[in-house]
Every structure is written in structure tokens, then in C-alpha cells.
């Protein structure tokens, strides 16, 4: 019987990793393999996935809808050769991926015999400005979905979810729309039990030329960061950022990592694990529109954050 695939898509910072984390943490005895694709040379998302080990495969430094499509197919083939095979495969795309291109790749006859694309889940930040629904990439992600999950409801104003549902319906999106507080989605929707699976008819349409719209810039350092300086640095960088995420050690809390996320104009910090050996203590990925932020400008701002650096 083919192994069902859950494809998780959504724009930059929508909350895809939180959803995948919740699925893995509440697997209910299912063997779930997760394929995580981050748009950048440092795959922060793979490090943030709960229990990131043999069950999580990282694809980095590109997008699986274009430059990494061969890697995706090879990764799936490797997962399907495992003994025992996974019960489900979850693919988390990068925020810049057009799911139609990934769907097309998953329709490969060789893969289709062994793994079936069962559900496309689009995670949508409920606080996204309604005007952003005019973005071609975001529309493509919504229209490919079987289920749209509204995330970050705890950060949204009252009535935001109702307005977002109406806006999604206005886009003629045929998906079921559900709330996903803290990444929670009813597993029965994503992993239906007792169903005879057959390939669902999917028409991804003709392949479109890849559009290079975003670029990723990485910053690393071995020296601890001053948290007040970092806050000032992010304030300077925020107008140019589409997304940022990373792990760093602060002067204020030596020996512990802090998880940093920036999306939708909001920055959050959360406690992380102890630093791992063999990787830089500070690793942050910044995503911006092409040409908006230079590496020299980024490095200059971020180097002023480290202990012993010049004040920013």
C-alpha cells in the first residue's frame, strides 16, 4: 500500500514548523518521517523540529519546488526503502515554495506507486493583512490546499479569524478552513483512518518559470550576543526583512541557546537547548526581497551585537 504524504505549505513565518512539531509530538504511535526544506544554507527549521533525529531529513540551501526537486525525489526514495517503512511522510516546504511545482514532482510515476500525496495543508497566519492575499505566491499556496489552517490566533485581534475566512472564501479557495491554535490541527483531518486510498485528481497546471524573488543571508558567530544590542539591531533591520530565525547564546544567559523568530513584524524569543558541538553558537538566517539588504550591511549591524563589539 502506498505511504500517504502530507504536504505542508504556507508563506514565510506562517507557523509551518509549529504545526509539524505538534504532529510529531502527537503521532499516536504512527511512524512519521518529516522532510524539512529551509530556504537557506543553514536549516534552522530542522533544528527546531521536535525530536529531530533519524525521522527528520533536512533539505537546505534551495527550494524543493525548483533547485532541490531532484533531492526531494531521492530523499523520498530513501525513506521508502527504510525497514520498517514510515506510516506517513510529512513534507514541510520553504515559505517561498509554489506547491503546484511540488505536486507536479510528486506525480512522478515512480514515486506515485510507492507514496501518495494525500493532503495539502496550507498554514496561514491569521493576522496577515488582507491586502497580502493579492500576492501571487500566497494565492498559489492557498489554492493548492485541501485544508487551510489559521495559525497565531492568540496574537490576532478579535474577529480576525472571521475576516480572514471571508477573505479566503472570496479567493474561491476550495479548501476546508480550520483554526490551528498553537499548531494544533485535528489529526483525523490529516491522517484519516480506515480509508481506501486512491490518487486524488490534482491538476497543478503547466510548469511556470521560477521567479527569484527572495534571497537568504546567514550570519554566524562564536561570541555571545548582547540581548539589548540585538533588539536594537532587529529594530534597524525589521523594515527590510520578510523573515528571520535562528539560535544564539546571550551574554545574559551563557551556556544556553535562545530561539529567535521574526515574522509579520513580530519578534519572539524562546528558551532553547544547550549549544551543540561542532556548529557555531550563533546562527541566524535572514530572508529579504532581492537587493533590499546587502551582506555587508547585515554583517555590520549584527557584529555590533556580539560581546566586545562596538555599540550599535
UniProtKB/TrEMBL annotation:
It catalyses: GTP + H2O = GDP + phosphate + H(+). Keywords: Chaperone, Hydrolase, Nucleotide-binding. GO terms for cellular component: cytoplasm. The keyword Nucleotide-binding applies. The keyword Hydrolase applies. Pfam families: cobW, CobW_C. It comes from the Bacteria. SMART domains: CobW_C. Residues 214-306 form the CobW C-terminal domain. GO terms for molecular function: hydrolase activity; nucleotide binding. Belongs to the SIMIBI class G3E GTPase family. ZNG1 subfamily. Zinc chaperone that directly transfers zinc cofactor to target proteins, thereby activating them. Zinc is transferred from the CXCC motif in the GTPase domain to the zinc binding site in target proteins in a process requiring GTP hydrolysis. This is GTP-binding protein.
Amino acid at each position: 500500500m502506498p505511504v500517504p504524504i502530507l504536504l505542508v505549505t504556507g508563506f514565510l513565518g506562517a507557523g509551518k514548523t509549529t504545526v509539524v512539531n505538534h504532529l510529531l509530538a502527537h503521532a499516536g504511535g504512527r511512524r512519521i518521517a518529516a522532510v524539512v526544506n529551509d530556504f537557506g544554507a543553514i536549516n534552522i527549521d530542522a533544528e527546531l523540529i521536535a525530536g529531530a533525529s533519524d525521522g527528520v531529513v533536512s533539505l537546505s540551501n534551495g527550494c524543493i519546488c525548483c533547485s532541490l526537486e531532484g533531492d526531494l525525489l531521492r530523499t523520498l526514495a530513501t525513506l521508502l526503502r527504510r525497514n520498517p517503512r514510515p506510516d506517513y511522510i510529512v513534507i514541510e516546504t520553504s515559505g517561498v515554495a509554489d506547491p503546484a511545482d511540488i505536486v507536479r514532482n510528486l506525480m512522478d510515476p515512480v514515486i506515485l506507486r510507492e507514496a501518495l500525496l494525500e493532503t495539502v495543508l496550507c498554514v496561514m497566519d491569521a493576522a496577515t493583512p488582507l491586502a497580502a492575499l493579492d500576492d501571487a505566491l500566497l494565492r498559489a499556496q492557498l489554492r493548492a490546499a485541501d485544508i487551510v489552517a489559521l495559525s497565531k490566533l492568540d496574537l490576532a485581534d478579535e474577529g480576525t479569524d472571521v475576516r480572514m475566512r471571508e477573505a479566503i472564501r472570496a479567493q474561491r479557495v476550495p479548501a476546508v478552513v480550520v483554526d490551528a491554535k498553537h499548531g494544533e490541527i485535528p489529526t483525523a483531518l490529516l491522517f484519516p483512518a480506515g480509508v481506501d486510498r486512491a490518487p486524488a485528481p490534482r491538476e497543478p497546471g503547466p510548469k511556470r518559470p521560477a521567479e527569484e524573488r527572495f534571497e537568504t543571508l546567514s550570519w554566524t558567530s562564536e561570541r555571545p550576543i548582547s540581548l539589548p544590542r540585538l533588539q536594537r539591531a532587529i529594530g534597524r533591520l525589521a523594515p527590510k526583512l520578510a523573515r528571520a530565525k535562528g539560535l544564539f547564546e546571550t551574554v545574559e544567559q551563557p551556556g544556553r541557546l535562545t530561539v529567535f523568530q521574526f515574522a509579520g513584524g513580530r519578534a519572539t524569543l524562546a528558551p532553547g537547548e544547550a549549544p551543540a558541538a561542532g556548529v557555531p553558537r550563533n546562527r541566524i538566517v535572514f530572508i529579504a526581497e532581492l537587493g533590499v539588504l546587502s551582506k555587508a550591511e547585515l554583517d555590520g549591524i549584527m557584529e555590533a551585537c556580539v560581546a566586545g563589539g562596538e555599540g550599535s
